[in-house]
Design a protein that fits this description.
This protein has 71 residues and is of the alpha+beta class. 38% of the residues lie in helices and 14% in strands. It is built from 3 helices and 3 strands; from the N terminus they run E-H-H-E-E-H. A 3-stranded antiparallel beta sheet has the order 1-3-2.
């Protein structure tokens, strides 16, 4: 059975979205992209990442002030 995962690591989310790993980490550190912490592992929900990308379409993700936060 090949189920789609609900959550992804930062590396998986970066690969899936095309956003670089370092940029993805910055977005999390800035509090723009909510995550689940499980010990040392950081998990990003698939639906949250999709919502984040929709809300920030056309924005410069390298500029903290230009990035909209999602809940």
């Amino acid at each position: 059975m090949n189920a789609i995962k609900m959550g992804m690591t930062i590396e998986e989310a970066a690969e899936t979205s095309g956003i670089g790993r370092n940029t993805m980490r910055k977005l999390v550190d800035w509090g723009k992209l909510p995550v689940l912490k499980v010990g040392r592992k950081t998990i990003i929900r698939r639906d949250t990442l999709e919502r984040f990308m929709t809300v920030n379409q056309g924005r410069n993700l390298l500029n903290e002030k230009d990035v909209r936060k999602v809940e």
